[in-house]
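Quick illustration for those who missed Monday's session on complexes.
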Amino acid sequence: MTQLLTVSGSPSATSRGNALARLVGAQLTGNGHYVDHLAVRDLPADALLHADFADPAIRASQDAVASAEGLVIVTPVYKASFSGALKAWLDLLPQTALDGKTVLPLATSGSLAHALALDYALRPVLQALGARHVVQSHLVTDTQIAVQADGTVRLHESAVERLDAAVEAFSTALPYVSAAA
Ligand SMILES: Cc1cc2nc3c(=O)[nH]c(=O)nc-3n(C[C@H](O)[C@H](O)[C@H](O)COP(=O)(O)O)c2cc1C
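Prediction with flavin mononucleotide bound:
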C-alpha cells in the first residue's frame, strides 16, 4: 500500500485531463493504494501568479506532494508544451520536492503532433525536482476520451490498453511499502 497523488494541471472547468486523473486514481485505489487528488485550478490564482509560497492552500499542496511516494501528473498540451497553470504550481514546490518519488506523466492533447511535449518539456522539470523515476509518459488525444455530463470518463478502446500499460509500469516502479509500515 502506497500513498499516491494524482495532479491535474488543466485550468479548464470541464477538463478531460482532470477526468483522466480521476480514472487513473480510481484504478490505483482499486489496486490497494491510497490516492489523493489535486486539481491545480482549485488553488488560489493569486497565490500561483504571485508566487506566494506561504499561502495555506499552496502549503497544503506541498504537504500532499511530500506525503506521496508516487505522483500521476496530468497536463493538457498547450502550445506544444505543458500547461502554464501546472508550471506555476511546480515553480512553488521546493527544489527537492520529488526526491525519491516515482512519477507517471500523462497528457491529453488535440492531436499526436505534440506527443513529445511530455518528454522534452515536462520530464526535465520533474527530474530537476529530484524525481527518482519518471516512467514512460503517455498521451491521450481528444478523440480517444470523452467526459460525460456526470463527470465520468469514457476512453476509446484504442487508448485503454496503452493507458493500462502505463499505469502498470508506474505501479511496478513504485517503492514497496508494507501495510505495517
Ligand atoms: C490554449 C490551448 C493551447 C493548445 N495547444 C495545443 C497544442 O499545441 N497541441 C495540441 O495537440 N493540442 C493543443 N490544445 C488542445 C488541448 O491540448 C486538448 O484539448 C486537451 O485535451 C485539453 O485538456 P483539458 O480538457 O484537460 O484542459 C490546446 C488547447 C488550448 C485551449
